[in-house]
Amino acid sequence: MSSSSLSISASSCPLAPYGWDADRESEFAPHAEQGLLPGRVVRVDRGLCDVVTPDGVVRADTEFVVPRDPMKVVCTGDWVAVDPAGGDPRYVRSLLTRRTAFVRSTSSKRSEGQILAANVDHAVVAVSLARELDLGRVERFLALAWESGALPVVVLTKADLVPEAATLAHLLQDVEAAAPGVPVLSVSAQRGEGLDVLEAVLAGGTSVLLGESGAGKSTLANVLLGRDAMEVQATRDMDGKGRHTTTTRNLLVLPGGGVLIDTPGLRGVGLWDAETGVGRVFAEIEELAQGCRFHDCAHEAEPGCAVREAVESGELPGRRLDSYRKLQRENAWIVAKTDARLRADRRREWKRRGAEGRAAMEAKRGHRG
Known about the structure:
Elements: H1 22-33, E1 37-45, E2 48-53, E3 56-61, E4 79-82, E5 90-95, E6 101-105, E7 113-118, E8 122-128, H2 135-148, E9 151-157, H3 165-178, E10 184-186, H4 195-202, E11 206-210, H5 217-225, E12 250-253, E13 259-262, H6 275-281, H7 283-289, H8 306-313, H9 318-368
Parallel strand pairs: 3-5, 8-9, 8-11, 9-10, 11-13
Antiparallel strand pairs: 1-2, 1-4, 2-3, 4-5, 6-7, 12-13
Helix pairs in contact: 2-6, 6-7
């Protein structure tokens, strides 16, 4: 496809259902002049990715954009510049600017971040009502969601397993208290309840579906897509145990508008430099802290602590303060660890450059001799 054929309006571009807009078209213009195709990554698998382009879905190699920084690897949801037809293999040549990125810390000792999805507008946190609510885990997901730049939404799945309306209302209130400023919806994929509201939220932009294995994400995705796009293994209703077979992140167009990225069940959701996100999740604590006597109050044993006074008066649940402290400590630890790793990487780079410089000088002296 020539660069002139890519000058069509963003709204009429075949990529418009995937989120292509005028700003993306403008950013892509230099790549179009090189004869490259615009595309969005719908799946990544061991160095290869599926990219939807104006010519359809193509398989491309990411070799040319493999960086030293793991935060810049090609990810589901990325917009890219890819080789036109004719190359074998075809390569992703460049990444376009990411507007948002959902990142968690890895379990590796190198304290690296892992990007789960890019260019996301809504982060949908699926929480199963088939098991006991873990509000601390919900708060953790929300901290990462806010930090990503996306707008979080909490979806309580399997509402049909809560027969009493009063119990369901109580569960909703508990989650709403743990998610200030975040829409909390209850849905039943089995009965089709609550899905119209969720579909309306997801119709605008890109959404990523997050949660633990057994949270009902793939079943929910299938219902929203109107087809069995995701394979689901049977899960025991009462305890939520089981596995589902989603092992990669897939980007799919929703029939009502918007696109959805389904993700594997997440066993670990470690924070990754999420100070702002933690602050958003615990907005009421951050506001109360403005009344503390000391600006750096840790809300432990300091005199004049407005936060602890709120706990003692019953205004603030003690569980919220405990969760806030826990996530703050974890985030401070990962930031310090990451900073230490970056300093070590810099020292190694300086040593490498120094050795190369000395070798070059020795070679130059030898040549003169």
